[in-house]
Amino acid sequence: MSNIKINYSLKDLVIYFLKLGTSGFGGPVALVGYMHRDLVENRKWISEEEYKQGLALAQLTPGPLAAQLGIYLGFVHHRVLGATLAGLAFVLPSFIMVVLLGIAYKLYGGLPWMQAVFYGVGAAVIGIIAMSSYKLVTKTIGKLNVQSFKNSWLLWLFFIGAATLTFITKREEVLLFVGAGLLYMFIKAPPKRLINNTANGFVLLQIGFWNFEMNTLGKIAVFFTKAGAFVFGSGLAIVPFLHGGVVTENHWLTEQQFVDAVAVAMITPGPVVITVGFIGYLVAGFPGAGVAALATFLPCYLFTILPAPYFKKIAGNKSIKSFVDGITAAVIGALVGAVIVIATRSIIDITTTLIALASVFVLIYIRKVQEPFIIAIAAILGIIIKIIL
Prior knowledge:
By secondary structure, this protein is mainly α. Helix content is 78%, strand content 0%.
């Protein structure tokens, strides 16, 4: 049980996740960092242990990392209703945004202006993610000094190994996380006995808003359910899976359309995986967007709330705590590896390098500046550099 007094209501929680879903840029690394900063450090609604348990459970189960963590944090004090409302509040704003962008895409036949925006936004996002990653590392593993390396050398080894593997393979390996957790548990707090028990209109037609076929909707439901149920890790992990099904297998989108869909995910707030709503809209209008989003997020919702009561109950055990610590070190390492992968695709020249560095310096030295303001400035710079100049 938490040792922190519940000092917030369900309404407060829903409002927070609505705001985060509306203004939380930067992908999973940044989003989980915002949750830690806001809910653990500043508001003290969630304890450090509860946060770490949620992060570990989110990584162990398939689906988008940030959305799963948000669902778990909603479950901590408000159970299933809190998990449900937190998840909906977090995903709904970005879903509405990508549907609106899908409408614009169908009306104008392309997003050259969006590519210009992404030129600047992508670089700024790297700076934001880098800062969030650094804060997560220092909070979950330790500060970057000799004493920390000496005291927590095994956790740092998990961190470096996961970061390296993620960078090389371009995806997260869940078996690595489990292995790190088990190894750390048996070294730090080996269990005395094996646990025997387990957890018991016309205008709308013009923009393709309602253009769909039932057969296509069925295929969308099946494919995106697989995406939500079998792909582990962050939005970066799901992109190759989506590409194989959407472009190669079903030929729903062209290569350029898929690249534009990924760009939409990166310049909108909320979970990166919300790009499934944009893809679904292009394939089968608003019904396609709704089915794609529901099929993707429902599995992760179930995979989070079903084991949550059992996971929280046993998390106080010293062996389980060591297991969680080992997993968390590997998880953060994998997220940092994903940051490096994204950076290699977004930092493409001197200008984007300067934008990324400027974002980091602003976040360090001008603490009152919020991330959405940085994103807006970067978007304007992208348009000026790529279109006006």
